[in-house]
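pasting DUF1428 family protein for the record, 119 residues
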Amino acid sequence: MAYVDGFVLPLPTSNLESYRAMATTCGAIWREHGALQYRECIADDVKPGKLTSFPQSVNLQPGETVVFSWIVYASRAHRDEVNDKVMKDPRMADFMKGTDMPFDGKRMIYGGFDMFLDL
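structre below
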């Protein structure tokens, strides 16, 4: 069954267009190297919770919104193969430096997930 990398991050709303440009470039690179899907979503109905919530998970600050993203692969092995190619792609060099990012990467949550149900 498929494998998914998931991401949740805080994005200053003033950086939405620069993030969109970065994500568009990254998405094209990931898809070119074999990712099956690349999705970027912006918060619409994510209220702060009492114990947990998307805003709390990234320590959302005034003027920021939550981005929820995922990339789908055929398997964990396929993910590792695609990511290896992506990380070696020269078009990723500036992104890999981590400078001038449109969001605070220290507050990004990410991880890999085995899909166990697909309806």
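The beta strands are 3-12, 37-42, 64-73, 109-114.
The first helix runs from residue 16 to 32.
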